[in-house]
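Async update (no meeting this week)

Hi team, since we skipped the sync, here's where things stand on the single-chain job. The sequence we agreed to prioritize is pasted below, unchanged from the tracker. I ran it this morning and attached the output directly underneath so nobody has to dig for it. Comments welcome in thread, and please keep replies under the output.
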Amino acid sequence: MKTKNALNVSGGNLTGAAIHVGDRVSVRVGKGSQRPAAYPEGCIGADLAKRNYVKYLVERYNHYREADARFGRTDRFHYSVLFKNIETRFKAPTYFIPEGRFEELVDFLHHRIDNTILGRVNGKRGIPNYESLDEYVMQHMGTPVAA
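Output:
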């Protein structure tokens, strides 16, 4: 059986599409295949603190969108839509976005969270919708963020 886009990695074969991050090439593995061992250098996924902060913001957005139903929002909510929107805007899967665009991604996610019904209500009441990167890292990871 022939496979498309097969890449030999450490003696095994992974199938999927090639992802270019800067001058490096990584593999995006399809369904049913194993994930690559690590994200390529230079992307958000390779930095644990940044990857976890993006994951935290995505979970926060999903939580706020679930709460929108309590405020009467009736359109159907799909968790994957946010990842698709990120991929469309940044032209790369979420954790494969170059680290140089991290602040832009964070601003995008902050705006999405702030624009939910619960986010707007919290904003009017002066309640923060999310922690900053430094607050998140200090509280959850216990180490300061390297610049």
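Quick observations from my side:
The first strand starts at residue 6 and ends at 9.
Strands lie at 6-9, 12-21, 24-29.
Reply here if anything looks off.
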